[in-house]
Amino acid sequence: MNILYTESSPDIGGQELQAIAQMQAMTRARHQVVLACRADSRIAEEAEKHAIKVIPVPFRNSLHPPSVYALRRLVQKLFPDMVICHSRHDSNIVALTRATLSWLTRSAPASMPFCPRTAPRWMRPRKLRWRCA
After folding, report:
1. Residues near 124 by Cβ (< 8 Å), separated by ≥ 6?
2. CA distances to 45, 104, 106, 117 from 17, in Å
3. CA distance 75 to 68
4. Are 36 and 71 in contact (CB under 8 A)?
5. CB 96 within 8 A of CB 57
6. Cys bridge to 85: 43, 51, 91, 113, which one at CB 3.0-4.6 A?
7. What's the CATH number where 57 sits?
8. Among 50-59, 66-75, 87-96, 101-110, which is the least confidently predicted range?
9. Phi, psi (deg, nearest 5) at residue 97
10. Is 36 in contact with 55 (CB distance < 8 Å)?
11. 31 lies in which domain range?
12. 70-88 burial by CB neighbour count: b if 16+ within 10 A, else e?
């Protein structure tokens, strides 16, 4: 499974340490894990110590358009199965990103002779699942 974690806090505390522990567990379970966070944050340093891939996103505030665009590009590039966020600021940015990507699904070719709803499960378009804790 391809999992994208987001964290907007520049400091590190309980929720950030919990996220690191979850990412380590997911990595041990052979999932692909990526952390989107501020480039200069302490969680970025901690994640890199544990060999977790870190991608910088500005996360300046809850309504920061450059953060939405950066996260949007990241989601389009990684196409994660799941996006997990732990704080209010990054969950707001994720919600705004999701609103701009509501059209994004994997789809079957236009020549497909049957409706995607009646297609075999493995051929159906795959929608992104989002979880904000």
Report:
1. 108, 116, 117
2. 12, 31, 33, 41
3. 10
4. yes
5. no
6. 91
7. 3.40.50.2000
8. 101-110
9. -65, -45
10. yes
11. 2-132
12. bbbebbeebebeebbbbbe
What residue has token string 């340093």? 45
Residue 112 has pLDDT above 70, yes or no: no
Q: Of 26-30, 35-39, 72-76, 90-94, where does mean pLDDT reach its minimum? A: 90-94
For the stretch 76-103, pLDDT in tens is: 999 998 999 888 888 889 888 888 886 5
Q: How many domains does the chain have?
A: 1
Please return the burial class of 41, using the count of CB atoms within 10 Å of its CB with bins 0-12, 13-18 and 19+: buried
